[in-house]
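hi! just following up on the protien thing from before. the input was this:
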Amino acid sequence: MSPNRLDGPMKNVRPAAALYSLLFFLGFGLAVLMLATDKNLQTDFGTVHSGYFVHWYVIAALAAAELVGGLLLVAARSRLAVKAGVVGSGLLAAILLGGILTYQEVGFKTATLMAQYLFGITYYGGNIRYLFDALLAVLLLTMLVGIIILAMSRHKGPDPAEARKSEPVPPASPANE
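and the predicted 3d structure came back as:
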């Protein structure tokens, strides 16, 4: 193996991880935009008059996780950080989709109606119409890009030709001269 572990495909992880963090920051921005603009998310369609609706706090936690994930990727820039990003973005996407199961809390009769509200084109007021779709797309894209970075940076061991070059040459014996 070469003396520098970052030689070969591994050297691409550092800049790729830094660029990968941009997807986390994009997700953070979308979540913050959703928190700031969607009145239905803030008030449960006007029924919460003090504080915010519980779903608002879930999106706030998701935004915080996106921010922390992006900062960790910038700081660590390693395969381990990218792996954590893949797992984290997958979990965040699952949590976002899991919101559909809370349909009864927001007054929908079925999960399908809740999914239609979150992903569909039916307008119920507020500004969540395309933000939820965009945030889910960014989370899934983040997971996919992370998987691609990991696949492209997999260390496959030393090249046999390089290994032969680095093998010590036996000293010449006086009999061969």
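The chain has a mean pLDDT of 81.
The first helix runs from residue 13 to 37.
cheers
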